[in-house]
Known about the structure:
13 strands; rod-shaped; five-stranded antiparallel β-sheet; single chain; about 30% strand; Immunoglobulin-like; alpha+beta
Amino acid sequence: xxxxxxxxxxxxxxxxxxxxxxxxxxxxxxxxxxxxxxxxxxxxxxxxxxxxxxxxxxxxxxxxxxxxxxxxxxxxxxxxxxxxxxxxxxxxxxxxxxxxxxxxxxxxxxxxxxxxxxxxxxxxxxxxxxxxxxxxxxxxxxxxxxxxxxxxxxxxxxxxxxxxxxxxxxxxxxxxxxxxxxxxxxxxxxxxxxxxxxxxxxxxxxxxxxxxxxxxxxxxxxxxxxxxxxxxxxxxxxxxxxxxxxxxxxxxxxxxxxxxxxxxxxxxxxxxxxxxxxxxxxxxxxxxxxxxxxxxxxxxxxxxxxxxxxxxxxxxxxxxxxx
Length: 323
């Protein structure tokens, strides 16, 4: 092998390694588990999709690849439901073309097609793995038409091309998860945290939710929302875990986090209370007519003899006007 070719192979290998690592870290997907599940599913169908069964029935590798695609779609859904497919979806179908070495080895072709055969037109099953944004992470091909089971990584698939056919599109279980909560609150407030999930229709009705503090293990509540009374001036970091319950076992699928900063309630100043009262009326002294100043002395009535006292008053009044 030339040095340039060797370096090229090394670069391609490193790229594939980091792609797999990213998928396992970000998407929660394990390629080895998927290949093993595909192999086990194909093996369970026996010789149904091999040349020895299809040709006597008047069929070919086309029908075999479509039946195999349906089996792989079952594998994808099962792994998704059990939380083993991460956040990926899969487009499963068939592709026709010149039989690549990754599908059927040279030794196998010679065994079935003769010593002079160097290849043949063939139709096999392909699986395209993608995320919620439409990014394609992997393309897998699978075949057992000539007997042995082959599962390997493929180049690319154009589903609009004449030599391909999409059998089933299994969307990602969880397309996106978002948390909604107020960014700030005061001590003593009730803060509402809500989670919104865009999920595949066939699994959305089975989703469950639980709330915890980030880094904590105590479950604060369950359901799509949590009403939390905040009693301390601090930052409340919460996470909502989205999971599926399968056979009494919780299968985590995704999670979202949110933070609310809680501050003490502000003190509103009040005006001081009044300590004195103002007079409610005015006091004044009336002046008798004809007097220059002061108050004139009024005639008095003797309380011991009130009748005589009244007569004396009239006499005095008459004497006053007679002057």
